[in-house]
Amino acid sequence: MLSDRYKNLDLNAALLSPEQIDPFPKADDRASWEGLLPETRERWIALAEQYHDYAWPALKVEDYRAYWTSGEMNKQMRAVFERRSVLGILAMAECIEGQGRFLNQVINGIYVHCEETTWVPPLHRIHADKSSKECMPDKTDHMAELVTCATSDLLLWIRNVMGIWLDAVSTRICRRIADEVKARLLVPYMARDDYWWMGFQPGVRVNNWNPWCNSSALMGFLLLEEDSDKRSEAVRKIMRSLDAFIGTYPADGCCDEGPGYWAPSGGGLFVALELLSDSTGGAINVFDEPLIKDIGNYIYKAHIHDRYFVNFADGDVMPMIGGDVMYRYGKRTGEERLMNLGASLKEGDPVIHIWFEMYAQLQALFLEREREERHAKAPYVRDAWLPVSQVMMARTEEGSEQGLFLAAKGGHNLESHNHNDVGSFTVFVDGCPLFVDLGTEEYKAQTFGPNRFELWYLQSQYHNLPTVRGVLQHEGGKYRAKDAVYATGATESVLSIDIADAYPAEAGIDVWQRSFKLERAGAPHIEITDRYELREGTADIAYSLMTPCEPIASAEGEFRFEYAPGRWAVLAFDHARLKPAIESIDTMESRLQRNWGEHMYRLTLHELEAVASGTRKLQIYRQEDMK
Asked: Mind telling me which GO cellular component terms the entry cites (predicted)?
């Protein structure tokens, strides 16, 4: 897309000089910084005061080595992210307050990061060189990867915004930032074409790493490279690499990594395209392309309510997505619903042990007043169907979170950050979770290793799916749904798929037609219908349902769930054929608890007798709608 469309563009003439790349007010532009919303100023300064005496604790080599000794990587990564978050907070607060209170700590933080032996975490180094057995960091471990890119982003924009103040202390500070970013990111970027995420290797599929790394590299070349020929060469390479990412996207714009990864994937692509457009005075602009629009629009289609999004695959049901990038994306593409979703989501405080993206934080800061003045409400679209990815979303009423919300997926089990979840579904009631996709736990070595699918929360039995003869769905591209048929109208929205091929042959399934229906007429309800044909009869069939709400048996064939204080939903099933069992999940760790709280339940419905074929139907409704 980019390379073909702009192959004849003279980039040397089109690109603004590094001095002209100026998206944010400089720190000494006190009118701009003091014109921010008062509550925003107070919030950032209060955050920074917590770290006024921060000691910049050392990154321990033993925590780096733990990846090899135990597979644990979270402790080391938390320490890395904490450093970056503290530096970002201090820099933001210093620019906002402008009194020098935090300046020494900002400089301390800059040098702490520049003195780190490597910015590359062990997982990413091993991913790039699987044959390496070396468990110690080295000063030559420079490569273009996520943490290097995020660190470069942080330091580059501190340099860009605070450069005048830093130079007043010493010109060595900004020069050191430039030297480190060049050595650790820009030189490796141009030296190699074999990074898997670049998309230049045949048969290797890229994911969110591509736009994430490319956007940070683009920032570096735009802000630091003085040689116009080298700068143009780098931008051409970035455009070719972004084309490889765009080429992997389905025509429906669906992010198969889930909304939690939309921010660095679709949102990261937007950042790169935004930078390309702004740095060329609009000479490069593909925001009119239908696919680029649909990549952005996906995120409002996947929105449920408040911070809840449809979270198939790895990721969180409440992903840490800033509304700002949605707003900017919608503004560029002219999509009002995307702008409204972005304006409706308030920017939260940065999470200290998660990525701190300086460019994104600065963008959010200076668009906050504009978003506030829009007084927007999330669009709450009634229906969405992504036909290539086989994902549907439907709600009772357009424009409201009240009532029932249903999401379901077909697809295959070779999606990026895949869970074995073909045919799974999600149900929310009045914006509250009822039957859910758990998501994932904190990442560790096993998450990305050959034993990934031994992790319980990735398996089909811990999704809202059937298990036949104890056989679970299998990972791989051939394990997929087929014969998808979708229809929607005023009274109902329905998806039907055959998920038999998502299971290995030993499950003995010939046909497993699963349909999902949201009925709006009369008493609104959701129906999940399974019609199956097996090669041999068995009673070993169980239907799993994952819920954060305690299931309470209320009558034969019914369970009640208190999804909000004093508000109840009902699950009805054929008690003459199915016997329920309840398992309380007590293996939830920090990330699942962060999304769902302390409790999760697995309700399973088991066949009472051996069957070779049959039809089973589950009905879900609000108790008040059946009165």
From this structure: cell envelope
